[in-house]
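A common beginner's mistake is to predict each chain separately and then try to dock the pieces by hand. The better habit, illustrated here, is to supply every component at once so that their relative placement is modeled jointly.
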Amino acid sequence: MTTLAKHSRSATPASPSSKPRGGFRQSGDLRIALFFIAPALIGFVFFYLVPTVRGIYLSFTEYNILGDPEWVGMENYQAIAKDPLFWNSLAVTGQYVFLNIVLQTALALGLALLMHQVAKSTIIRGALLLPYLMSNVIAALLWFWMLDYQIGVVNQFIDWAGLPRVAFFGSEEWAIPTQALINTWRHMGYTALLIFAGLQAIPGHVYEVAKLDGASAWQTFRKITTPLLRPVLVLVLVVTVIGSFQVFDTVAVTTGGGPVNATRVIQYYIYQRAFTESDFGYGSAIAVILFLILALVAFIQMKFLKGNESDLD
Amino acid sequence: MTTTTNRARLAKPAACRRPFNARRAGAWALLVLAIAVSVLPFLWVLRTAFSTNNALASNATSLLPADFTFGAFLRVFGLQTPAEAVAEGGSGAAIDFWLYLRNSIIFSSITTAGAVFFSAMAAYAFARLRWKGRNAVFSLFLGTMLVPPIFTALPNFLLIKNLDLLNTMLGMVLPYVFMTPFAIFFLRQFFLNMSREVEEAAMLDGAKHLRIFFQIVLPNAAAPIATLALLTFIGQWNEYFWPLLVGSQDDVRVLQVGLGVFKSQSPQGAPDWSGLMAATLISALPVLVLFAAFGKKIVNSIGFSGIK
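With all components supplied together, the output reads:
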């Protein structure tokens, strides 16, 4: 905030000789500013602002694309409260989010610490980042093949190890963990790089002092690394949670919500209600609920984990 | 700062830690394992794409192609007759990844060019111009980052439908082409830190804002703009949900959507694995090429783009 204020002050243009200094040329700047933000403003208004308002409005209507939306008040929300498929989608998504938090954060933190200790080369970081640059669809199909029940290479190894083959996508208990594993594979390196950047930002002399005082590796990690890394960890957590709540692509390409309802995650359910069953009002209402959940999650994480305060300040 | 130093001092002195080699070796081993998990699946895709479906079942674990063939690529590019395709384990349904490749390139290029350029213009107004309500409008723009894409996707779909633009390239690019909140945020940071002097000199010269923007600001920010364009292009290339909603017909279908369709076409029981992996490879290739050429730029941008 301070930087911003400083900049806007220094951003006062040196007035050209023709204009008096006190005028700030504010009105002139407003007109030219409007010209510069006009295209972005069009995009903002038509594809972000209006749709947000319209989405909320639609959630109070019954609308099947043909004809006009019909106002029904809270009916959609009342129906959702009694909809077992909605609660199932919430539970399934919650399970997916939880697995992602645990797997992704733990693995990424470990990886970041390893990189910080033994190797900082760009090539290693690049190799770890590679899965993140692939689309969800590619990640899903690649693992759909590798985890295939019949001839997937992973099941071949499981077979060799003398264990029973696993129906990663076909069994109800494995379907969501499998989706979470795919997502973890895709995001692990990226998250590790974020944490790694945070580790690099901790000044070296802090560690030197700890070393001089004879702190053990674990003590250094607990008492220095963790608190100083907190803002980055909170950011990673927010990004992971908000991203995982919106899982769709991998599910849509591999299991399509099944087996039974095992992977019918929230966004997939919205998609089905709105586009397969042409029930836009109902779909919009679930989308509003998802929006509220995400806002709440972000708020809680920022508020109670004090994500924007670092002990370094 | 003082707090941390004090805290470190408070830590109980423990037995002096000597970094012994076994530990480093262990760390390296874990790192190599993580790299293997990240990279080996791509080799597996490559190997499968050059295999024959019939040979895959009996030769499921070798890193080399099973019964080497280009058949899968021919099939994916629609160069095999349905009979040939079925004989090699394909579904025989018409599929043309040339078309999807072209559509993906058009879709990603237009949205990237538009979003980066228009966002740069907006970022200039937010960073270098003084006007009433600037910070409020900027906060509004930033706020849109919090709205989940699925939420705006439904009304946006209705808008595109009402405009009669479903299954057109225009309908697909419209929501992205004007700006992305992240691009504005990203570029504004760089514009804020740009030195004022050059601009002021130009002002005295009587240069107008448009000239300053094109001749001073844009060239000076070439590096971050290139990074942003790279990240935006990869993001657009990987986009699935919106193109799935709006571009379901062949002539506008992009690769990611085509992949999904191809997968669902695969005959039940014995999927066309080599065809699917060939298609996957084709879809991944442009990003892999970009990564090979600009990997360092991408890797170094991660600390920053994490705010996204």
